[in-house]
Amino acid sequence: MLIRPAPLKKEDAVALVCPASPVSRESLHACMDSIRSLKLRPVLLPGCAQSRGYLAGSDAQRARDLNRAFASPEFKGVFCLRGGYGSPRILPLLDLETIRKNPKCFVGFSDITALHLAFNQLCGFQTFHGPMPSSDYKTLDSFSLTSLTQQLFTDASPGTLPHPPGHHPSVLIPGEARGVLTGGNLTLLVHTLGSPYEIDTRNKILFLEETGEPLYRIDRSLTALALAGKFRDCRGILLGTFTETDDADGETPLLAGLFYEILAPWKKPALFHIRAGHCMPSLTLLLGAEVYFDTESLAISVI
C-alpha cells in the first residue's frame, strides 16, 4: 500500500516548482495568488523565474528545486506551476532516496505524469493528478476547486468520486475492476517505455488522458502500450478527456471506435469520458490509491 502524504493545513508553506516548461512573469503572480486563495503560503523556488526556450531553467536547476522542495521541512506540499515539456529530462537527477523519506502532497498533471510515476513506483507515495496554479485557482469552477481542496486538506478517503453535473462517463467495455490507480498523460506514459521509470500496470487501474493529438498519434500511442503488455496486465481502464483532437473533442464515434478497436481484445472493463485532465470542470485523482469502478452504476470509488 502506498503512503498517503499528510494533508495540508491552512497557512502551510508550499513549494512552487517548474519541472517542465516556464511560465511568464505575469503568470507567476497569478500562480502565487492561486496558492494564497487556498490559504496556503507560496514559496517560489529559483527555477520558476528562469527560462531556457521551452524549458524552465536548466535540467540541473529544475531538479535542484524539486529535490529541495522535498528535502526541506519548511515545505508541506509541492505544486507544479504548469506542464509543457521537460519533466522526463530531470528524472535521473532526482534524489529519490530523500524524496522517498519525505512524502508530501504533490500536485500536477500533463507532462508532470513522469514525476507521478517516479514518486508512485519508486518512492512509494500517492500523488494528486489535478489542476495547477497557472490555471488560476481563483477562477476555477466550484466542482474543480472542491475536488482539489477536499483531497489536499484531508486524509479521509474521498469515497465515490462525483461526476460534474451534465458530464457522465460512457461505457466502452462492461464490467467491474479494482486496483491501484496509475497513469496520466498518454504520450508521457509511452515515453517511459524501456526506461527505469516505465509504467507498471500489473493488477492496476490504468488512467489515460491526452490533448492536442490527432487520431493517428493516439492510435500509435495506444498500440505502443498494447505491444508492451500494459493492457494485458491491468485490471481496468479509465479514459479521461481527449481534448483538441481531430474528432471534435471526442463527440463523434471516431475516437470511441479507436479505443474499442484497440482495447476490446483485452476484455478489461473500461469507462470513457472521465472528466479529468486537460478540461474544466475536472476531477482531482489520487494516483497510487486503490479504486473500484463498475460500468453499470458508472461509479468510481476510492477504497
Provide a descriptive summary of the structure in words:
It holds the Pfam family Peptidase_S66C. This is LD-carboxypeptidase. Belongs to the peptidase S66 family. GO terms for molecular function: carboxypeptidase activity; serine-type peptidase activity. It comes from Zhenpiania hominis. The structure is a single chain. The protein has 303 residues and is α/β, with parallel strands linked by helices. Helices cover 29% and strands 21% of the residues. The protein contains 10 helices and 13 strands. The strands form 2 sheets. Strands 6-10-9-8-7-12-13 form a 7-stranded mixed β-sheet. It has a 6-stranded mixed β-sheet with strand order 2-1-3-4-5-11, sandwiched between helices. Helix 1 links the parallel strand 1 and strand 2. The mean pLDDT is 95.
Helix/strand/pairing category: alpha/beta
Overall 3D shape: globular
**Helix and strand string, N-terminal first?**
EHEHEHHEHEHEEHEHHEHEEEE
The largest β sheet comes out as:
7 strands, mixed
Let me know the average pLDDT: 95
The tally of strands reads 13
Alpha carbon gyration radius: 18 Å
Low-confidence stretches at least 5 residues in length (pLDDT < 50)? none
State the end-to-end distance.
Answer: 12 Å
Number of helical stretches of at least 4 residues: 10
